[in-house]
Design a protein that fits this description.
This protein has about 250 residues and is of the alpha+beta class. Helix content is about 25%, strand content about 30%. Strands 1, 2, 3, 4, 5, 6, 9, 10, 11 and 12 form a ten-stranded mixed beta sheet that branches. The longest helix is centred in the first third of the chain and has 12 residues.
Length: about 250
């Protein structure tokens, strides 16, 4: 069963687990389970995703029950009205806070037709706040230890793979990112902590209800395996402090 975080007559939000595709993709032809299908079977109604989460990302995923509602919600995302909060474990110790303002070229799936201006980069901004750091006795390459940070991330735009690409751009890739990270480092971390996944989670989604206009604030807890790593690295209190700040 997919955990339901919010539901009314227009919308339903779930806590998507890591490793689950939102919908069918030719890039993962072998996959037989999709969030759209599982949720439809679970609640007995057709649903349409109004935004995307990568397969490896866990957390808040919002669906609409009809095309008009889906279009209205998608428009909020496109007009940058929706506020999103993510949590990630990254390599290195970035500054305590900052903004990555770096345009990103369009990333398309193999089955999508190329755009007319395929080479044109789109503006993209991601703010971050460093919540905690750790240094482990893991040797990767020439260094005897490895540094990691827990980041809260606030993407101001919504480009494909934006957070993952932005963190790679500033040399702090997300742990477990097979595309934009470093395989050897990911494997070493997974072997030491006992968890192999992309350490990126959609924690909070703030938007307007498409019918009433009321503010919606949908939150998801950390997935158990992500929370276990946070605990193992001694970051539980730092995360709790951040969550209290968010409540204030």
């Amino acid at each position: 069963m997919l955990p339901i975080l919010y539901q009314d007559e227009q919308l339903v939000a779930i806590h998507k687990p890591a490793g689950l595709l939102v919908h069918r993709s030719v890039l993962d032809r072998h996959e037989t389970r999709f969030a759209v299908q599982l949720l439809r079977d679970q609640i007995g109604r057709r649903v349409q995703p109004v935004h995307r989460l990568d397969k490896g990302t866990s957390g808040v995923l919002l669906f609409a029950f009809d095309r008009d509602v889906a279009a209205a919600m998608s428009a909020q995302f496109e007009s940058l009205e929706v506020q999103k909060t993510y949590l990630a474990i990254v390599r290195g110790w970035p500054a305590e806070q900052g903004v990555i303002d770096h345009a990103l070229a369009v990333v398309r799936d193999e089955y999508e037709a190329p755009a007319a201006a395929e080479s044109a980069a789109q503006p993209a901004r991601t703010a971050w706040r460093r919540l905690a750091t750790a240094e482990l006795p893991l040797q990767v390459d020439r260094y005897p230890t490895s540094r990691y940070s827990l980041l809260a991330l606030f993407p101001e735009t919504g480009r494909r793979h934006q957070i993952r690409r932005h963190l790679k751009h500033v040399s702090h890739p997300i742990i477990g990112d097979a595309t934009y990270g470093k395989g050897r480092h990911n494997r070493t971390f997974a072997e030491h902590l006992g968890v192999a996944r992309l350490f990126l989670a959609s924690m909070r989604l703030q938007c307007r209800h498409p019918e009433s206009g009321a503010a919606l604030d949908i939150r998801a807890p950390l997935a158990p395996e992500f929370a276990a790593v946070v605990e193992a690295l001694g970051w539980r209190e730092a995360l709790a402090d951040f969550e209290r700040d968010e409540e204030a």
